[in-house]
Amino acid sequence: MNDSAEVNSAAPKKEKPAPEPTATLSEFFQYISACEALLLAFAIVCATGTGVAQPLMLLAFGELFQGLGAGSVISGAVVSDDRMNTVLLILIYIGVGMFICQAIAVIIIDTITARQMLKYRRAYLKAVLRQDVAWYDVSNPEELSTQFAEAMVKIQKAFKAQAMLFVGIGYGGGGFILAFVPQLGNPEVAGVTLLSVPILICSAVAMMYLVEHGSKMITKAYGVAGGIATECLFSMRTIVSFGIEPAFEKRYNGALSSVHRTTIINKTLLMGSGGLILSSYLIMMATAVVYGAYRLSGEMEDSSFPLAVNGSVYSSGLPNGTDATTYYCADASGALAGVSIGAPCAPLAPFKMTCQLGGTIADASETPFLYFAAGVPLEQIPVQNYEATVLAGLGFDSVAAFTDFVKSHASASYLKDNPDYNPCFVAGDKIIIAIFAIMMMGEGFGMISQPAQTFSLGRSASAKVLAIIRRVPAIDSFSVEGLKLTGIEGRIEVSNVTFAYPTAPQKLVCKGYSLSVAAGTTVALCGPSGSGKSTLIQLLERFYDPLSGSITLDGVDVKALNVRWLRSQMGLVSQEPLLFQGTVAQNIAYGKPGVATQAEIEEAAKMANAHDFITSNLANGYETDVGLRGGKLSGGQKQRVAIARAIIKKPAVLLLDEATSALDNESEKIVQAALDEIMTKQKRTTIVIAHRLSTIRTADKIAVVSEGRIVEEGTHEELLSLGGMYTSLALQG
User: Where in this chain does the record put each ABC transporter domain (predicted)?
Assistant: First the structure.
């Protein structure tokens, strides 16, 4: 039992993954200029104004709600033309303002987005070109392009999302103000509706998590699939030659299947949370309607009082049995918020001087029965001094006559016998405004979630891009620091160097590597594959730095030299020549810093035995496009162009890394002849990595490399006389 406990306690705990880095706002907007920042702030104000303008429409509609039932003529209740015209003008002004604000916001934000994306791309490419080779070894270059493209899309969407983000903030904020400011809406009704908000928030949080988590998983899966596709496209000849197309198709389909499964699961959960949000929204609206109606009905019932008709008081009904109870509501300021009569009459306006046609009383004469509500401004006479008066059968032929009558009977006030009136805070128009304002608030804040999530994802993508942009490599080719020697000779000393590649730090490739190369001599390295021959060239170019030991050029440690200047003094020809999309002339000219003349290009091509085939075999000569990675040229042609590119700058040190190993016999002879001529006629320091000993017999020195060390040195004849490893290699051919 104890042993088991010990085993369990010793078991390693699964570590939580590190949180996804997110760029701060200052980092995300670091490329924005002061002028752009001001324009962006103005665009944000316009976007917010666009959102705020929509809830403002409720105030205009509130004017209509108040006017319903408040007729100005004896013939019945109508909404005045002046009120309608005012509301119409308000709506037109709001609409025009929304259009202008939205147009300004979109134009400015789209323009700034385009400028920022250009700056991001330029900075990223510069940073990638700046990185050292060790970074590429561990960064999976096949996936870099896919990841960068996806990051740029997310950053671009994040910039554009600002418009909708602040429209939503303005929309939701405007709705909140209308709902909770007593003079505009009804805080009590609005507050009750918010009981459903916790469900809404939980659903929104769940949706945001699913979007973020799912996006990361999908991006990662697409990155793997993109890496496979890139590898396949760049290795098509090899894939076809081995007939392994089905294997790559299977790998790619497997990666896409992972994307498909992840997407289905994420979208299913996402739709579920979306449905929960919609349900919460509907519950919230239903709560507002039911509670508002309940409160209005209850308060009007509590504020009822008997109705006087021609001096007769009816507390339960008119002579024909019609309900004669009058209701009123007074708001916190003492002004009546609503008055209505339970008899066949529409609700009266908020205690203004009005008259309305209420209907008929079923007596023998069936005389039309007019209900009149008379009043004066409540700020002049306290509401407690009023009583309801309904006059029937009076022969007023105009509103003016009725008004004069009311003024003369002002002492017969409302509510004279009801001093303990029930003040109420629920008015029909404010209830409607509160309900629609809460709807707008929910819709507005709901609009925020998607652009906010997009903005968050953009900041996460920005953090990854900026991490590369800010990374300063240990070997910085963009740095201006370091020495630049004059009158360079080309003397190289490698002293007791140890080195391991970043991808396999525990495996030493160089174990006390030491070699002397005199200026102007040719030194060849040979030995078994993996012994560390090519590593020396990469250390000389400062693609990497040794773990210990030193490498000097003319007695100066290469670490003290300016990296770009050091590489400008070396001409490298690799085993696999890599040409760039463009013309032959452009590819050769890349070898010389600055601008290469046509004469220099042709001179380098002649030295590399490339001039004849360029002018004779290529349709456009030096202006012939070589295709992607030089695909329109043969292997021997590409290698000769690569040699011309290496020697056009007249380097002090020439590095040949198995330059002919990938060529057929005929091409190898042509290329080797060019190299021999270069090494013979131009006395520059040359280091040759040999795959065939026949190509290095004339070298001034041959060094045999085995297991990361130099085990033999000498000329061809001297090494053969030793009967050691070189002799064994020679016998193997």
Answer: 492-732
